[in-house]
Design brief:
This protein is mainly α. The protein has a single domain (12-33, 40-129), classed as Up-down Bundle (de novo design (two linked rop proteins)). The chain has four helices and no strands. The protein has helices at residues 11-29, 41-69, 75-101, 107-129. It starts with 10 loop residues before the first helix and ends in a 23-residue tail after the last helix. The mean pLDDT is 91.
Length: 152
């Protein structure tokens, strides 16, 4: 592993990998078909499939966005990826409810994933606190400009 992969050794990325592995285990361990007896089986099947897809998409996004800003000092890029990571964590946990609505409820495993996300949160906050707002590209959308930023 060279310096370009040094982010893989950080507690933040290691926790992201743990989240990805837990999410994968939940999705792969889940049923292929929604629970029979559902009044709206077609909807439940769609909910099951969509929730599984969402969980996996969000689980992979977390680590990818950490890696995506490794070595970059651009505040706006760091903040944009941080927002996507935060959203992915939140949406992944919400998608567990979709699994439950479709009849797949493994609370012990779901709680492991929820706990891992909660453990990720302070590591994430520490990481975001390291962003320096002195190095940025002006964001014409106005979302990720540091206070007092002016267009060059």
């Amino acid at each position: 592993m060279d310096d370009d992969d040094s982010y893989r050794k950080t507690p933040l990325f290691k926790k992201a990998e743990e989240i990805r592995k837990l999410a994968t285990a939940i999705v792969e361990g889940g049923p292929e078909k929604a629970a029979p007896g559902s009044q709206r089986l077609k909807f439940a099947q769609h909910m099951l499939d969509q929730s599984k897809d969402d969980i996996m998409q969000h689980a992979y996004t977390i680590g990818a966005k950490i890696a995506g800003v490794h070595g970059s000092s651009l505040y706006d890029l760091q903040m944009e990826n941080a927002c996507l990571i935060r959203r992915s964590c939140r949406e992944m946990v919400v998608a567990l409810r979709g699994l439950e609505m479709a009849g797949y409820s493994e609370q012990a495993y779901f709680d492991l994933l929820r706990t891992a996300v909660e453990e990720f949160r302070p590591l994430f906050a520490e990481w975001v606190a390291t962003f320096k707002d002195s190095d940025y590209l002006y964001d014409d959308w106005g979302l990720f400009n540091p206070p007092g930023a002016v267009r060059d």
